[in-house]
Automatic annotation (TrEMBL):
One of its GO terms (biological process) is amino acid transport. InterPro entries: ABC_transp_permease, BCAA_transport_permease. Its main location: membrane. Pfam families: BPD_transp_2 (PF02653). CDD domains: TM_PBP1_LivH_like (cd06582). It comes from Acidovorax delafieldii 2AN. One of its GO terms (cellular component) is plasma membrane. It is a multi-pass membrane protein. The chain crosses the membrane at residues 15-41, 48-66, 72-91, 103-128, 148-167, 188-217, 229-258, 265-284. This is Inner-membrane translocator. Belongs to the binding-protein-dependent transport system permease family. LivHM subfamily. PANTHER family: ABC TRANSPORTER ATP-BINDING PROTEIN, BRANCHED-CHAIN AMINO ACID TRANSPORT SYSTEM PERMEASE PROTEIN LIVH. GO terms for molecular function: transmembrane transporter activity. Keywords: Amino-acid transport, Cell membrane, Membrane, Transmembrane, Transmembrane helix, Transport.
């Protein structure tokens, strides 16, 4: 059976590849949405944090023999700690300013971080082996499913849903949202709002690092690997709606599949289809598919 001149197994394989890419889009755009929605900062450094997660994972294996499973925990903790430093030393001074200041600050930070790693490792890709437990593939009858790619999809969706649940359905999430809109009122209830804001940015950075660990066996680890995703991820966030948690998750997964399908029917458009969709969505719904009207900087 053929669809658009492509065999069904070939089509499903391409859609699976799109779903894997969509999983990275979802988890990275989720981190961006958390930071923007709760801190009101456009975090252009997210791609660099993603790269740091992957490079630290490679360094841990190469220099210290620390395996993949440990790094799923350690890399987010290390990059999250770096996020604490960023928030405390840099971002805390610009919350009341225009979004442009946050964008320029995090862009400069991105160039600095990428430059440091590039000076050490260059721009050539560094290989990272698939963990032994996830090697090989599983036959589904109509296609062969690589085990690691299946793990990436499952792990990404689980983390995304868990994050959505915490922010939208728990008391902690309510404090976070309230602290963004009225920090003085929340402080009156004994909540340390500055610490909560710092930990929120650290969590967003940790999400990016977690995605970097997942990406290490899929993509070539490189100091520039964040540049290849961050522009698309920003488009995903805009389409889903700036600050929308569920919008980022659903849009990231959906656009990954659309991108994979486009590679089958019209490969030349696969690199631009996300941006075409972004233009169409903004013309119809400027706030994004799941977005709400922006309420301005945090007071």
């Amino acid at each position: 059976m053929e669809i658009f001149g492509v065999s069904l197994p070939g089509l499903l394989s391409q859609l699976l590849l799109g779903l894997v890419n969509g999983s990275f889009y979802a988890i990275l755009s989720l981190g961006l949405a958390v930071i923007f929605g709760l801190l009101n900062v456009i975090n252009f450094a997210h791609g660099a944090l993603f790269m740091m997660g992957a490079v630290i994972t490679w360094m841990a294996m190469t220099y210290f023999g620390i395996g993949y499973w440990w790094m799923l925990v350690l890399a987010p903790l290390l990059v999250g700690a770096f996020g604490v430093v960023i928030e405390r030393l840099l971002l805390r001074w610009i919350y009341k300013l225009d979004h442009l200041y946050g964008l320029l600050l995090t862009l400069g930070l991105t160039l600095l971080v990428e430059g440091v790693f590039r000076s050490i490792y260059g721009v050539s890709g560094l290989g990272y082996d698939t963990p032994e437990l996830l090697e090989g593939a599983t036959s589904l009858g109509f296609m062969i499913l690589p085990n690691y790619r299946a793990w990436v999809v499952v792990a990404s969706i689980a983390v995304c849903i868990g994050t959505w649940y915490v922010i939208e359905k728990t008391k902690l999430g309510a404090y976070l949202r309230a602290g963004t809109e009225n920090p003085r009122l929340v402080e009156a209830f004994g909540v340390n709002v500055p610490l909560m804001i710092t930990l929120t940015y650290a969590f967003g950075a940790a999400l990016a690092a977690f995605a970097g660990v997942l990406a290490a066996p899929v993509y070539q680890v490189s100091p520039l690997m964040g540049q290849n995703l961050i522009i698309v991820v920003f488009a995903v966030v805009v389409i889903g709606g700036m600050g929308s948690i569920m919008g980022s998750i659903l849009t990231g997964l959906g656009l990954g599949i659309v991108e994979g399908f486009t590679k089958v029917i019209y490969p030349e458009a696969s690199s631009t289809v996300v941006f075409v969709i972004m233009v169409i969505v903004l013309l119809i719904r400027p706030a994004g598919l799941f977005g709400k009207e922006n309420k301005g900087p945090r007071a």
